[in-house]
Structure formats: C-alpha cells, structure tokens
Amino acid sequence: MRILALLLALGGASALADQIPSSAGAEVYIIAPKDGARIKGPVTVLFGLKGMGVAPAGVKFDNTGHHHLLIDTDLPADLTQPLPATDAIRHFGKGQTEATLELPPGRHTLQLLFADYTHTPFAPNVVSRKITITVEK
Ligand SMILES: [Cu+2]
C-alpha cells in the first residue's frame, strides 16, 4: 500500500513538471563574440554546445534540442514553460549554430538558452553566461 502511494505521488509530480532532463554535464556557451567585445557592423554570434546535440524544433531525438538567443533581456521567470518567440528571444528551430544580428549602436547583452523540441528549457537548465558587447557606430 505504501508503494502504491509512492507511485501515485511520483506520477503526480511528473505530470506537473514536463521538462526533459538535460544530459549530465551539458553546457551551452557563446564562442563569439567575446564578453566585452567592441564590434562594428553586423554581429555574428557562434553558438557552442557540449554534451548534447542540435536537432530541429518539433522533432524528438534523445539528448537534443535547439538554441535560443536572448538579446538585451533576462531569462524568463518561468523556465518550465515553452519559450515565447519575440525580438528578444530568438529561436533557431532549424538547428542553426550561428546567427548574424543587426544591432543598433550601444551596449547589448547576449545569452544562450538551450531548449527541447517543444521550446521548453531542460531541467536542469542549459544556459550560457550572459555577455555584454558594444556595437560601435
Ligand atoms: Cu525554440
């Protein structure tokens, strides 16, 4: 009877948290530009990933997901839900591993967040450090 109660409790918990577990040691990082870089013209961002693979959105393959680039924004408060697609949260659902951005002159922050085929972040989250760059006129 105690085992049945435990199974029911576990079932309830997994229904609440639909996040897919990330692979142990998975890491996402911005290869370029470097934190603090000053850049003229379009900014090419190279996405780095260790411990998991890239796949297009909508297709479920084990241990894969796609990149999301956060521009001038913090992480969404609720990372258990699918990420919205906005100017500040760009999805790379074709499996792209780089992007070229036209950013206005000034300081900008960039951060990568890796998420599953439904655009929902993994648990634990696979997120990069946030970097700051300056686009020069
Ligand atoms: Cu997405």
Summarize the structure.
The chain has 137 residues and is mostly beta strands. Helix content is 11%, strand content 42%.
Task: Provide an overview of this structure.
The chain has one helix spanning 2-16; strands spanning 27-32, 38-40, 43-50, 53-54, 64-71, 89-91, 98-101, 106-115, 121-127, 131-136. The chain is mainly beta and 137 residues long. The chain has one domain: Sandwich (Immunoglobulin-like), CATH 2.60.40.10. Strands 2, 4, 5, 6, 8, 9 and 10 form a seven-stranded mixed β-sheet that branches. A three-stranded antiparallel β-sheet has the order 1-3-7, with no helix packed on it. The N and C termini lie far apart (70 Å). The model is unreliable at 3-16 (pLDDT under 50). The chain binds copper (II) ion. Copper (II) ion (CU) is lined by residues 57, 66, 68, 83, 91, 93, 115, 119. Residues 57, 66, 68, 83, 91, 93, 115, 119 line the site of copper (II) ion (CU).
